[in-house]
Amino acid sequence: MVELFEQDMISLDRQSSKGNQLKWKNGDIWYKTDSVGYEGLSEYIISHLLKFSNLKEDEYVIYNPQQIKYKKQIYNGVSSNNFLNGGFKVITLERLFKNYYGKSLHSAIWEIKDHEERLKFLVEQVEKITKIKNFGKYMNKVLTIDGFFLNEDRHTHNIAVLIDDKDNYKLCPIFDNGASLLSDTKMDYPLGEDIYKLIEGVKGKTFSFDLEEQMLLSDKLYGQNIVFNFNHKDVEDLFECEELKIYSSLEKDRVKKIIFEQMRKYKYLF
Fold this sequence. Notes:
The protein has 2 domains: about 1-85 and about 230-270, no CATH class; about 90-220, no CATH class. The protein is about 35% helix and about 15% strand. The chain has helices spanning about 40-50, 95-100, 105-110, 115-130, 135-150, 195-200, 210-220, 230-240, 250-265, and strands spanning about 1-5, 25, 30-35, 65-70, 75-80, 90, 160-165, 170. It has a 5-stranded mixed β-sheet, covered by helices on one side. It has a 3-stranded antiparallel β-sheet with strand order 6-7-8. Helix 5 runs antiparallel to helix 7 (about 210-220). The radius of gyration is 18 Å and the shape is globular. The termini are far apart. The mean pLDDT is about 95.
């Protein structure tokens, strides 16, 4: 357990529709608490399963379970190493577009009727503003992870690039997967309900309400850029982590069941 204090608390230019997590930076470590369920469990499992993929180590953030004491309360959550260096900071796509055009990227995307054109617009605008090449391939990786792990909170406040004080841009490691794997047990996905019915109700937010459509359209436009190579034993082994004792057996068993179902459904990703 780590004790954190008000002076370490941070406020970021990233918004969530799934509750406001408390966040801190202490030294070179970032911390955040669970807000509506087992977000920390999702962050841990997803980031460690990404080790079993073709992604490079610097393409995603690794999270580890952490109990956090703040004031008189003890929270479940996660910690991660600071991935910002060389004067770079995070800027969301929503803020990036607003700074450049003076209007909302989210609104601009959803004014376009065709879903494929929505994704193309997003990618083209980011490449135009930042001069980053192949942003479409990056989005395919993000949307594939979101589709497979059922991340329902990937809106334009929750996708980012990195910028330094000279307006140089580069890709941001993939982070913030807490709203995945039906982690919201307080509101939308109560424990004990049929997970197959719950999975059917998960909706996307990037450019379509259908997570699978987002994934498949990004494959069509930019190719399949991520491959997984974990198996059932690899998944089971992750749950042997001693720090996961802060989560209930019911929560952990549900997450395993969800992942196994997604592995069955999306065999082509392996």
